[in-house]
Amino acid sequence: MQGLKALVIDDEVDMCWALERVLQGEGIKTHSAHTAEGALAILKRDSPQLAFVDIKLPDMDGIELARLIKASNPSLPMVLISGYYYGDDPVIKKGLEEGLYVGFISKPFEVNEIRSYARRFFPKEGSL
Amino acid sequence: MVMSDTEKFFEQIISHLPISILVFDSSLKVVFVNENFLEKTRLKLDAVMGRGPEGIFPPVLLKYSHLPVLLKKVIQEGKGIPGQEMVYRAPGIPYRVYYYSLNPLRGIKGMENVMLLMEDITEQSRLREEVRKTERHLASIVESANDIVVSLEPYGTITTWNTAGERITGFNALEVRGHHITTLCTSRDAEEMRQVLQNTAQPGKVEHLEVEITTKGGKKIPVAWGFSSMRSEAGTLVGLVGIGRDLTETKQLQAQLIQSAKLASLGVLAGGIAHELRNPLGISSAAAQIFMERPDDPQLLRECAQKIHTGISRASEIIEGLLKFARPSTRYNEPTDINKILDETLGLIGKQLSTQQITVHKELDPSLPLINADGKLLKQVFLNIIINAYNAMPRGGQLWIRTEVEKGWRPSSLLVTFRDNGAGIPKEHMDKIFDPFFTTMPLGKGTGLGLAICYGIVKEHGGEIRVVSTEGEGSTFTILLPITK
Fold it and tell me: What is the complex's ipTM, to 2 decimals?
């Protein structure tokens, strides 16, 4: 399990808490950032294997942040989370089709949705 | 009979007098007639001389003036009869009005004669009738007016008012005569009205105010008054005139308009509100699920319950703010903290601003005095202006919100300034932005009522809105609100 890390980006501290809690339950270490700037800073010194990105951030639009991350960390899979959009919004579909992110979760969500992304992008527990 | 020069001289004067003269003897036969009478009546000298009134005057005239009777009376009593009017109508002669008098002539040729003097006043009578008509016309204008027209003595005592005054207040002109006009107002407004009346007494001043008056039936109705002074030709104050308009219906329409504009801004808020609700809902939901998966961990239970509680409280606060804003409210002035109203407004829309990367810089003067205002209405004004700034900065920006007391020796207003670095307003739109239904938004996106309503609300508070804007650089809206004395 060493080295498995996810990055959680959401301006809501409690939302980060919930996501981290679920991921940690899967044996994944987490970092959290509340701004785009903070997220980019973490990505400079660390390389997580999965990122959860909230779309409405105070300093940048989450989709825009996803593009920046894609440019600097092209292999990092991202899951977008939003309380503003729904999965069938054209702007969300477009990013999925482009392969900018691997999935989208709308708030409120089932914790199993988070868990299933974690299991998809991290090797199964005990396989290491 | 040979006339002397003197007699000829008098004869000339008499015949040229612009007055008709007839002299009757005691048997009521004409013994003298002047040229003027013959000209006016188009009668020949021998058709008049030696005849009685019946042979000279038209029968209708005799019937209504009782001329023969009056002539007899003068002869019998030796006393003249002062001026009266007669209308002279005869075939082939234009209609004339005469002012006539009967005067006894004593002792000439040893007999009693009566002189009938007739002055043609047809023209004066026509003018007088015209004046009367004009007066009647003016009176009927005042009477038919839909607004109260009241005339006051210089200090405000009612002299009279029109039918609209009766209809609107229920008091007829007699009931209000002699009462001071301020007795109609609620006591709160009376002092203000007294002040306005005093100002109106200054030459050339027209004063306006809005007060509630109490009708005979005890109902309170809003009336907008305009007062001006009535002056004599010499310029001395004769009285005051007030025109009062019943605002009941206007107020109702205004309230409806405000409500519809409110609903329109709710549409703008809805997107942001949904987002705001989904965050605390998401947190509460996740926390509940996390706990359900590990029901045996008391520490986790506490933590999760805490998060759920916080999330729900936040969600209900958002809903409460929204409901309070959406609910129609009756206008109510009370001492109001403008800073607090601004904070509450930002509470409604702040999240939406920040998600559009708009940074709000608040510079609220903590020593701002309370003002007498309707906080709910002002909240709508602030919200509208902030929404405009939000729409002007689709890719983010800065919004400065500042409150301060007007500078100067005796500040009378406080200023609320909203400055953004958004799109700005094109020059050609500047004089239209407060017009109702003026909008640059696509169809269905904006009603164009926002700023018109803001303008109305601020005016109603006795304040004003100023705008400075440069296209491409941003806009500054300044709201001036009077500080309550």
Answer: 0.89
